[in-house]
Task: structure prediction
Amino acid sequence: MDTATRSTVTAPADRSTPVRERLTAGLAEAVARKGLAASTIADIARLAGTSKRTFYEHFADKEECFLALYHARSNELMAAVDAALSPGATPATVQLHDAARAFLTFVTEDRVLGRAHVVDVTTIGERGVAARQEVVDRHAETLLRMLDQARAAGTSVRRLTHLEAVCVVGGLNEVALRALETPRTPPSRTSSSPRRGSCRRSSSPTDAAGRRRRRLA
Result:
């Protein structure tokens, strides 16, 4: 997908600062340790290396902080899906497979944060439900654009309605949720190493939280 049409999810207020990023990283760490419901503002501030007073200078409550984290993760997810697409270079079916794999890999690579992304966002009230619907709509628009580009390149694919595209995205979310709820088996010692030259995502609140967990282990 070209740069002009890449999907992004914009947070309600574009007030991104290093302190806000530390606070959302602190929330990601707290969620990874004890889940969203049990995480407190004191936990977030402590893990962010700041104070509760500073927290309230940037967020009204824990839910607003979580929505900022959700928007940040959603943008990372959409970037991962976009990176998996190669309009015109590969058949539409291959692009669909690659996009779905990128989606599922991102959501399930951190099981606790993945569940927070798929499920917990709907537990924080109307703001969470609206944010999730926006993200689903964005993914549906990405799918529709990909199919439009495939048809423009001469591929015979059926035109989907927006609602049908939403159903496809909803199905992916269900697959992701089932994967998150299925216990993982330990990796085999003979499993192959990551391929050299594989893509690396830029640092993010969730990356920072993961690094902090490894240092504390």
Confidence is low (pLDDT under 50) at residues 1-14, 190-202.
